[in-house]
Request: fold
Amino acid sequence: KKMVEQIRRGEQVDPMPGIVGKQRSVHNTYFTLPVLFIMISNHYPMTYANAKGWLVLGVLMLAGVLIRQFFVLRHRGQVKWWLPAAGVALIALLMVLMAPKQVDAGGEKVSFATVKAIMAQRCIACHADKPTFEGFAQAPKGVMLQTPEQIAAHAVMSAQTVASGYMPLGNLTAITEEEREKIAIWFAQGARTAD
Ligand code: HEC
Reply:
């Protein structure tokens, strides 16, 4: 716009805005894949719910840059397979490092009372017949976690969503790692709803 304005006014054209624009376009090229990932990342809570989420995102962005660079070079006739291979290797490394840890079900028994108390503190603000969390008029997806029967009915999904970091949503109720582990152990021990 600045350059067109200069041409209109019959002034000498300063090429700088065009050069800066080209530079931004190059940056955008490398941001393409990371931005696409961020847009769908809601489906991958294990990435953003990780305690080192910023590092996970950094590695994923680097992988995106490597893969994009492959296409940039290929458009110029150079085919460098090590680039996407390195990108995929980085993602594979993340998967290995971030894989959920196996919990030891053989250790001390986690009582149902403990799990119920955790859910009362961290879940039922949303998952109740009358949610108290601001903005929630009803239990999300009809999932209520107030009674032993309700907790039993949603035990599998509760264990999975808590382990992946999806629940509590955005960790708005500040569950601790220790509490997450307790729920995982309770589930591995058979998800009893009586002590
Ligand atoms: C701040 C509100 C909030 C809190 C707190 C919360 N949830 Fe949720 N929960 C949601 C929302 C919203 C959904 C629906 C998400 C969707 O549709 O993908 C949901 C969905 C679920 C589901 C159904 C998942 C599915 O895909 O069917 C389960 C099970 C669940 N939550 C368990 C829990 C547990 C266990 C806790 C506590 C450790 C918890 N939630 C805390 C808001 C919350």
About this structure: The chain has two domains: 2-98, 112-188. The radius of gyration is 25 Å. Residues 2-98 form one domain. The pocket of heme C is lined by residues 119, 122-123, 125-127, 133, 140-141, 143, 145, 154, 157-158, 161-162, 167-169, 172-173, 175 (CB under 6 Å).
